[in-house]
Amino acid sequence: MPPSPPPSSSSPAAPYHERLGVSEESFDRLEEHLERRVHENLEYRHLSNRRSGIERGTVLIAGTVVRGFPKIPRTLVVSTGVPEHFHGPVAVEEKLNGYNVRLVRIDGDVLAFTRSGIVCPFTTRVVRRDLEAELEALFDEHPRAMVCGEMIGPENPYTAHEYPGVDSIAFRAFGWRDRERGTPLPVLERRERYESFGVAQTQYFGTDEPDAVADRLLDLVDELDAEGREGVVLQSRDGDRQLKYTTSAANRGDLAYAFSMPFEYGQEFVFRRLIREAFQAVEWGESEPEARERAHRLGDAILCSMIESIDAVAAGETVGDRHTVRAEPETIDALLEHLREQGLTLHIEQDRAENGERVVTFCKRSQSTNDKVRNYLDGQIVDV
Ligand code: ATP
Ligand code: MG
Fold first, then answer.
1. How far is residue 199's CA from residue 257's CA, in Å, rounded to a whole number?
2. What is the whole-number distance in angstroms between the Cα of residue 167 and the centre of ligand 1?
3. Domain definitions of the chain by residue range
4. Which end of the chain is more exposed for a tag (fewer CB within 10 A), N or C?
5. Whose CA is nearest to atom 1 of ligand 1?
6. 42-46 and 59-61 as β-strands: parallel, antiparallel, unpaired?
7. Is the pLDDT of residue 2 over 60?
8. CATH topology of domain 78-94+208-245
């Protein structure tokens, strides 16, 4: 049995299974898969993989439920996929390349949860620092709100990507849900609310009928691609149905990243991205020279990043996922401790003070890639 929850603003003392909308028996089964964690003396449990219809990242904390952010399906072909998936007007917004966070206020404190439902002490501090007034006003008026968005920018400990006008790390809202039910606000209402609270949001490209959106999308994706942006997320007006589509630049970026650590990423990860490229080339009706150009860039992304990594190991350097972060010293400590707790081996490559902040460059060492590349360079025979 879960500990009896303290009264909450919604339905006082409702047990977790009721809040999740499942029977007591299925909650008992679910409980075995919940992982227990502590954030600053506050114990919580989270589901790191989707199970029995409950979203990945769902959290049970302080007697309340914080729903996971739903997985967004993808189409490989815009012209057929969009009309197939939507039967009414479709809102188009930019898909940002960063990491997913959900912000909620629990017992008076704003907490930032990652995709799998872990409180990230770094993100929590960053949003409290950068969005304190905005979030206080928002949660005062809407205590059950779950603010969903992406942390973007170059000084980012998980997924760093350059965006014009973002020099360090920044939050961009793309969803507003009821934290216990997970139901979204309609797109336009959500955008108006964020606007009124002064919270920055992802770009909005308008709402139209599915066929019209599909027609416009090829040009829009071309523009986003040229700017190195990730893609689009489409939603029904009520925010309930979602669909994503990504640019070739994003696919190449993912491949270059994965092949810089060729022995960490599953073959499925790379295979899926190659498939996306092939369908995009066909839908875009590319000429032979255009298709060759695409193939060339794809090959560069794959092979050049792998060669760079092998060169690095040969030169005695560490290969891995390298990030720079900038924040108050205490926030950096909390981040490094948090990452180490997740079992990561960190190499601190630079650590300096700048205007009272600490700027740290670290590398999350890729165990398999470093070890295997070293062994192969030393002549170990491959068994395939
Ligand atoms: P998942 O779909 O489970 O999150 P994934 O690794 O496949 O896993 P992505 O391919 O990045 O994720 O696509 C979904 C993610 O895109 C969302 O979880 C969210 O973090 C991010 N995202 C960025 N911009 C938007 C947006 N405008 N609307 C919705 N999601 C967005
Ligand atoms: Mg993403």
1. 31
2. 22
3. 78-94+208-245, 248-312, 320-365
4. C
5. 71
6. antiparallel
7. no
8. Dna Ligase; domain 1 (3.30.1490)
